[in-house]
């Protein structure tokens, strides 16, 4: 059965080519111009993925995202006008899965849509295991991170990023490798997404955050806690 995409975007010159590309790839696409219509479309015909503009007339994209998240785990890609908006969305933890800065390449966006839809069913089954590093302990089955025994709330992608770096401790991972492993992209995507999430990890874990920047290469967690 064809997968359904809902585009909530008031700018027709952005929505129309995106819709065309998605339809060419076999998706069934509904395009609405504002948040109210978007929420109505969510109820009437739940999509497999939502492309959601941040700056919408009426209810803004952040609020639409929150309201969708209150009832649904459908993947959401936020469409933003500026790079700075990505920080804002990630910081507010509205629950978006990904972010794309306009103007974007429609073909690249379609590739991301496919990547997210491919991995969506896999996230339903948590894989167990625990890792510790210094005062940080992470339990994958429970989706729980603790610093010195105190639980810290991480967004899903922050959690996956920390897990991946800990699993590969001692090795440097490039931004492209992290995008591929954590976000599921198989092409050189928006590596800024990685930086924003690392920043969030540092903010939340403070001194205990074991993630080290390797200039010009990427990120790593040291071999042992003392080295980090
Ligand atoms: Ca807009």
Structure description:
The strands form three sheets. A five-stranded parallel β-sheet has the order 2-1-3-4-5, sandwiched between helices. It has a four-stranded antiparallel β-sheet with strand order 6-7-8-9, with helices on one face. With 228 residues, it is an alpha/beta fold. Helix 2 packs parallel to helix 3 (61-71), helix 4 (83-92) packs parallel to helix 8 (192-205) and helix 6 packs across helix 8 (192-205). The mean pLDDT is 87. The protein has eight helices and twelve strands. The protein binds calcium ion (CA). Residues 10-11, 53, 55-56 line the site of calcium ion.
What is the secondary structure topology, with strand pairs?
Layout: E1 4-8, H1 12-24, E2 28-32, H2 35-44, E3 49-53, H3 61-71, E4 76-80, H4 83-92, E5 98-101, H5 106-119, E6 130-133, E7 136-139, E8 144-147, E9 150-152, H6 156-167, E10 173-174, H7 175-183, H8 192-205, E11 211-214, E12 218-221
Parallel strand pairs: 1-2, 1-3, 3-4, 4-5
Antiparallel strand pairs: 6-7, 7-8, 8-9, 10-12, 11-12
Helix pairs in contact: 1-5, 2-3, 4-8, 6-7, 6-8
Bound molecules: calcium ion.
């Amino acid at each position: 059965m064809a997968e359904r995409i809902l585009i909530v975007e008031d700018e027709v010159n952005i929505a129309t080519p995106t819709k065309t590309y998605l339809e060419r790839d076999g998706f069934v696409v509904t395009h609405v111009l504002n948040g109210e219509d978007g929420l109505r479309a969510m109820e009437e015909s739940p999509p497999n993925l939502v492309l959601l503009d941040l700056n919408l007339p009426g209810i803004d994209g952040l609020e639409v995202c929150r309201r969708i998240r209150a009832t649904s785990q459908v993947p959401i890609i936020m469409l933003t006008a500026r790079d700075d908006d990505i920080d804002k969305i990630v910081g507010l933890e509205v629950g978006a899965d990904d972010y794309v800065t306009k103007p974007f390449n429609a073909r690249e966006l379609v590739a991301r849509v496919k990547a997210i839809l491919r991995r969506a069913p896999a996230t339903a089954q948590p894989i167990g295991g625990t890792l510790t590093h210094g005062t940080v302990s992470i339990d994958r089955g429970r989706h729980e991170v603790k610093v010195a025994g105190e639980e810290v709330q991480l967004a899903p992608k922050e959690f996956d990023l920390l897990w991946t770096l800990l699993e590969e401790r001692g090795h440097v991972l490039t931004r492209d490798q992290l995008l591929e492993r954590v976000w599921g992209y198989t092409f050189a995507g928006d590596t800024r997404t990685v930086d924003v999430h690392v920043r969030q990890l540092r903010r939340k874990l403070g001194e205990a955050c074991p993630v080290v920047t390797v200039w010009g290469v990427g990120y790593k967690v040291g071999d042992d806690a003392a080295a980090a």
